[in-house]
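Q: Hi! First time asking for a complex rather than a single chain. Here are the components, and I think there are two in total. Is that enough to go on?
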Amino acid sequence: MPTLEIRNLSARVEDKQLLKDVSMTVKGGEIHALMGPNGAGKSTLGYVLMGHPNYEVTSGSVKIDGVELIGKYPEERAKAGLFLAFQNPVAVQGVKLSSFLRTAYNQVHPSEKLSIQEFYDRMKQHMRKVGLDESFISRSVNDGFSGGERKRFEILQMVMLRPKFVVLDEIDSGLDVDALKMVAEEIKEYYNQEVGFLIITHYQRILKNIEPQFVHILMNGKMAMEGDNSISLRIEEEGYDWIRGA
Amino acid sequence: MDVDFKKDEELEQLLKELNNLKQNDYEFHDNLKPVYSTGKGLTRETVEEISEIKKEPDWMRRARLKALEVFQSKPVPTWGPDLSGIDWENTSYYNRPDERRVNDWNEVPDQIKETFQKLGIPEIEQKYLAGSVAQYDSEGVYHNLKKVWEDKGVVFMDLDSAIQRYPDLVKDYYCKAVPITDNKFAALNGAVWSGGSFLYVPKGVQIDMPLQTYFRMNGEATGQFEHTIVVADEGSKVHYVEGCLPADEIVSRGDTFTPISTVNLLDSVMTHSGRKSQVTRTFIHPYEGRMLTVTPLSMGNAFRLTVEHPVLAVRRSDVDACAPRNGKMKRLSDGRLPACKPDFIRADELKEGDFIVYVAPTETTDDPSINEPVLRLIGLYAAAGSLHTDQASGIREVSFRYGRPGIAKTLAMETANLIEFLGGEAIIARSDNGLTTVSSKSGDLISLLNDLVREVGNGKKFSERIMLLPPQKQKLIIDQYHGAVSAFKGRDRSLPSVVRFSAAGETMAFQLQEMLARIGTFATITPGRVKNRAIHDTDGGSKAQYVVQYRENRQFSEVRRSGNIFFVPIKNITSEDYNDLVYNLEVSGENTYLAKGFAVHNCTAPRYDRDSLHSAIVEIYVKKNARARYTSVQNWSKSVYNMPTKRSWVDENAQMEWVGGSLGSKVTMLYPSSYLRGAHSSASNLNIALAGAGTYKDTGAKALHFAPYTSSRIVAKSISIEDGKAIYRGLLRMNKGAVHSKSKVQCDALLINDQSSSLTFPHDEIYEPTATFSHEASVGKIGTEELTYLRSRGLSEDEASSMIVLGFLDDVMKEIPMEFAVEMNRLIKLEMSKFGAVG
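A: Yes, that's all I need. Here is the structure of the assembled complex.
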């Protein structure tokens, strides 16, 4: 079974320590939620996992199926099966969505020979499911996209690239109720025993659509609490103060 | 533009190989002495000699000498890049190209040749690019087009020839827009110019196809000091392309009949000669426009292509001309057609009834192990056989099913005999549904059949070993196949000589057609859907069917054969709007490939050069109501100082468009200018400059508004890599009286490394108060967030930065011709990768 193992991970930006000794194990078929108040370091964890160059890992390890990712380039992590749906995906002017995805696909799945037409067909099919109009194929990556469109595109990338471990960073922000439903459906359709999910979220909203088996609470860069979905339900009722008090 | 990802993959491969070559392999170190040269240095004698060799009229000789005086009196400009590296004394100012051709190619280092090959440039073009042939003669290919132009009064030839043939016309325009006193380099060109084109488009003539220097028919195509004059007379329209760009795209099948979208680099495809050749490049891009469907005799061979794609053809109206008979119009059946030499004709100039060319492959490789019994069994297997693997035991079994009472039994017996003759065991059984089945579990036999006939999609295909067999052996397969299938389809009662049967799938239909062509008969393919079960399809229901028809020992009406080619009349041509992907191939050698067996052409090339000082003049005259566009992609080797002077005169209500891409070279100074002389005239200038490591691009544009209501638009994009410097230098002048004129200037720079640099020197002279103008400038660096985002999806740093660079150029790429954009894209990626660009 695929395993993503985070052990005693600490990271900083310049002098600011943002993650302290974080550990967590996500296995194929599991859905984990990572919650916490603003500034707790949730997004930082996503960036660190992906290998963003602005974050320096000071100690710890991140392994997929026993293979160490720390010290590797983002593209190597992507090829190892990791995927991060960014909270605020950047626009890349002039880079066509279709050619970007196709190039990425060929990098991540070099042995799969998918003809352009097959690739297009598959992409169009998933675009319909996530609610992106076909005209987006020839648009620039995230350029002029609304917040919701960016999120839909992140999910499109996920289903097209077929990663083993998916980190969704605030995937529900910017999505209205209907859009959230569509995106959640696509995530659920992709979910299987071979894929592990880590859903980073401030609110419980997305978790109503996709129910996690495990909930982790991050506060001030540290794991403050871990348990089942009852934690997230209580957070919805009471916020985070009770954990602070705990 | 749309980044073309299929090509990206191929490029990736190519770039990996290129990276293994040393950087200076791109430069030419050619110590060869030309056979004829005026020697080094520049004197009055040199200039006199050049004029003498060219047998020029006296006015040209005097113009050259005058220019020499100006050249000698002007100092080297110091306001721009450092030009002290130009070695004036050791420059050869004239080499007679036709005498230097032959030897030079041998002197081109092998690695350069390899580089050309890796760039996917056909050999003839490689020689041209390396300077060893001064002319890339594509007369054969474009003969027809040329004739069309000439009939309209278009003059398109090298400037030397034009001076001999149309001295007065040339004299009217020579050095009028660019006077020799303009600058030192223009004066140098005036003194020693050689090569270049003269293009005159008469009043009202509109040429939709880009005219490319490669298609010019005679004389020197390029030179160190070429001089080009383009005159678009009143109301005319022309697009002049310096160099050659790939032709447009089609959907095609190679000899094994795979869709063009699945053809890869280095695959072999059949060319119009009937021989295989390697694919050196593949193209794919979205296309929005008219798409033609050309149907030759039968629907099955209908192929689609874009309007400008050249197709090998003979016009029906030319059949008389190429083989006249007593001046009398004869029926086509008298055999004149095979005497005609086909030419490449634009797809949208083809008419119904014209003849296109079906090519039968000529290569054969006999395989003695495939003997008569094997051939016959293959024929039966293709028609009625199938392979199964028993799920429980894993044992494989081949079975042949025959359905027609009477004949089924005979076929079954024959099959069993063949199996036993080939060392297998056969069981004949009759099933309840009336089928007679012959089956065998003989492993060797199954392996053999499986190797020679493959299952594909909804049908079968013969393996390459079968397709390469000599025609007489293939005939045996066809006879046996036909014998088995005709149990169902039979012969056409109304046309007894017509043999008709259904093929096991589309691929097999094309293969049978090809085999029949090798035997000497052109077969048609008619697709359709059938309700009844075909003999190889016992599942029933409706399925696609391909009916192959031919006439034994003769051709269908109006089809003519000449050796391995068949002239096939076009039954109809339809046109539709199209907005989807299109594909194209570049093939080494002949650079043609077969669309469902029919020959089409392709063309491409960037330009490299070996001389160290280049100073061209381009003069463009756009008369009242005319439109002219001038496109050039230049990619010089890294030792070149490139100092061209390009200028246009734009008259009333006329439009001038400059599209340029400047890559390579050591120093380039290039500012295409538009003199807006008539009211309501306009000019646009799109320029991309790539300053690679160690290079200096001082480029820009000039727009001078002399008349009211004129407008200009300048978009300049530059990319600096490593220590490359990109300078934008522009001039905008609004003369007094240029009332309500407008100008918009946009220059964007992208820096790839910390040490790359970019500067902007816009110079505005506004003397007209009602004129308006705007300047926008931006400088960007490749950002960490963008790079990380792309890399997090699996793209390498190089890929990600190439993508960002091409994205930066996208708004210009969108406006320029597709072919040009593809070429630029390719060259930029090459350049980026050569220098290991990083973010």
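A: The CA atoms of residues 254 and 269 of chain B lie 5 Å apart. Let me know if you'd like any chain examined more closely.
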